[in-house]
Hints:
By secondary structure, this protein is mainly alpha-helical. It has helices at about 5-15, 20-30, 35-45, 50-65, 70-80, 85-95, 100-115, 120-125, 130-145, 150-165.
Amino acid sequence: MTLWDRALYYQSVREHSRHELFQKFKKLDSETEDDEINKVLDRLVDRAFQSDLKYFDSRVRVLLLRRWGPHKIKAALMKAKVPWNEERFVKLREELGESESLRRQMSDLLDKKIRSTPVQRFIDESNLNEYSASQKLQEKLLRFLASRGFSPSEAFRIVREKVENIKPSEN
C-alpha cells in the first residue's frame, strides 16, 4: 500500500492533523524520507482531504461531548500541533448547545461526582473533624475538575460553594 493510499485510508476513518499523519507514516516506515511524506501530505491538503481546521472542528466537537474542559481540549490540540482558535471554539460550543457557562458545566459535573462519592466516609475516616473532612472532599473535587480541564481558580470557587452546602448526613 502506498503512502497516498494509506493517507486516504486514515482520513476516511477519521480526521487527522497533519502532524498525526506525519507521525503515523514515520512510525510505519522510519526509512521513508521526510520530503516524501510532506509531498503526500501537501497533496492531501491541495485536494482538501486534510485540513487542520477540519481536524480542530472534529476534535473539539468530540471532546466537548465528552464534557472536557477548555484547558484539556486545548492541551489535546497542542499535542496534535493544531493551533488554538478561541473564536472557533466558542462557536462550536454554541452549535452543540454547550453554550452554558463553564460554571454551570462544572456545577453539573460536581453534582454528579458528589452523588457518587460517599461523603460520610470523609467524616468517619480516621475520626476526622468536620473541617478536615470538608478539606479532603474539596481536594478530591478540585483534582476531579482539574483532570477534566477546568482552571483551578474557576474550580476553587464552585467547589468551595458545593462543599459548604453539603450536610454531613448526605450520602
